[in-house]
Amino acid sequence: MQIVFASAECAPFVKTGGLGDVAGSLPAALVRAGAEVIVMVPKYATIKDEYKAQMEHFADFYVSLGWRNEYCGLEKLERDGVTYMFVDNERYFARDYPYGFFDDGERFAFFSKAITESLQHLPAGFECDILHCNDWQTALAPVFLREFYQGLPLYDRVKTVFSIHNVAFQGQFSDTVMEDILGVAHIPAAATQLRCDACSINYMLGALHYADAITTVSPTYAGEIQTPEFGEGLDGVLRERSYALQGILNGIDVVRPLTRQPTSALPPTTRLTTVPARPCARPSCRRSWASRFGDDRPLMVMVTRLTRQKGMDLVMYALDRILSGGVQVAVLGTGDRDYEDGLRYFQDKYPGTMAARIEFDPALSQRMYAAADMFLMPSKFEPCGLSQIIAMRYGTLPIVRETGGLKDTVIPYNEFTGEGTGFSFSNFNGDEMGDAVFRAARLFWDNREAWNKLVTQAMSQDFSWTRSADKYLDLYFFMHPEIERPAAVEAAAAVEEPVTAEAEPEVVAEAEPVVEAPAAVEEPKAEEKPVEAKPEVKVEAAPEAEAKPAAKPTAKKTTTRKTTAKKATTTKAAATKTAAAKTTTAKATTTRKRTTAAAKKAAEAEATPDGKGRDRHRRG
Prior knowledge:
Layout: E1 2-6, H1 18-32, E2 36-42, H2 49-52, E3 56-65, E4 68-79, E5 82-88, H3 90-93, H4 104-118, E6 130-134, H5 140-148, H6 153-156, E7 159-164, E8 172-174, H7 177-182, H8 188-194, E9 195-197, E10 200-202, H9 203-210, E11 213-216, H10 219-224, H11 235-240, E12 245-247, H12 281-289, E13 299-303, H13 312-324, E14 328-332, H14 337-349, E15 354-357, H15 362-371, E16 374-377, H16 387-394, E17 397-401, H17 404-409, E18 423-425, H18 430-446, H19 448-459, H20 465-479, H21 487-490, H22 492-496, H23 503-511, H24 518-521, H25 538-547, H26 555-570, H27 579-591, H28 596-619
Parallel strand pairs: 1-2, 1-6, 2-5, 6-7, 7-11, 11-12, 13-14, 13-16, 14-15, 16-17, 17-18
Antiparallel strand pairs: 3-4, 4-5, 8-10, 9-10
Helix pairs in contact: 1-20, 4-5, 5-9, 12-15, 13-14, 13-18, 25-27, 26-27
């Protein structure tokens, strides 16, 4: 599968928001899963010189844009197995910031046209199967592809995917752009499907009509944007094309460190597994704030833009009640002046209990994630959100409003079953938010054992890009059924996913269906393992071991069985080294005491769960 991923920003080269994080991490995850990916990004003047020095000139050609004929260069850079193609045109991209100029409509119309034109100038052997466009800056690429390039063999195979990261930013411009820049005013289909009112066109609207598939960054947000409340005027076309719309959650990069600054105050960032590692960050954080936060009271933090969309109206309403009720609060961020002044007021009113930093400090934000007990995120709407995911990764329990990706990523705590990964409330209401905060605080005060269990559950969640990449590959291969999905791609999730708390019992359970070795029976980690397995001896216990694969076997396990089968037949001692070899030895011992027909039946029973396990793991 050969994929061109087009984005107006891409970390670490250029980033202004979440789109840069997605474009910086998802393509690398797709490559690890077996796909070939080329990322196309404008060559902004703001890209650091160290990256520009690594680029090599790959191709150049001219792009027609209305009556213009503009130069386009492709500068190539390879990083983490991903090929990056930087679209070079100094007239459009030699600016001190990516967006916010009077000619943005022309700049990104050129970028979209350059993307489609460059598909015939890619490295030898790379023929694009999927063109994946992101947000309004690349929304015209599917339009240009179908109106100007349809019928060319190279382009007929290309399927387009358009991802909505925030439906509020759509790219609306005067309809004079259609003729002067886009050159589509004479094409009735394009002129009709781009127009959003009597005198305006909408780039995103064009992509929603022309793209073969539409995705957004969470399943709940995919449903919300089909309503007038959240659709920002596009809910009608989104309902019309709901059959092509789906939500796929973003992930976080669990391979790279969560902070680039080494400090003993932070817990391990590669794998957080224990609750006691977190409190070491609290003294450092308190020194940074020059505040005296006490250990007997929960510390709740916010790292956010101070805007209404982030729920600051609710915070201002409920903050007096929260602070007077014994919860410590720390806020980091910048935004609207009214909210900044309000936070300063509460800091003066509750010294030692409330702290506000009206600034942007990435290093401090990491210490806050690590030091806090609770993370507040009461957004009015949130397409996906990464802050709550990062907080859970650090073992800080999120308190969120049930909207968009917040609803999809945070499981509300159930006091009767102990299930959950955080706390939530439904309506955009300050009293409901305050109630959710105090539900969390009461658990912190009254039942620390249940609190620590909840922290462990939150930290064990898998939000890696591996899982998201697997879902995108499902979509890509669905759109290209003629391309056979390689086994290596299907098994990528099993190989690449970091070990999680849920996965650990599965490994133990695979090792336990052995009746000959008492050591294996004494490992009681998997709940599925019956205690009766210990007294049962070879003849009767072996069939039970074959029929009892309660744990999920992975694709990795199949390979292990094949490589250890010979060891099992040579010596019985080697059978205790791996779970797969143990099962094979048990089967061989039993076979000598049964008929040939019974042995064949046992082999069939063993083969069946392996297939089920692989399927179940792939869907998960």
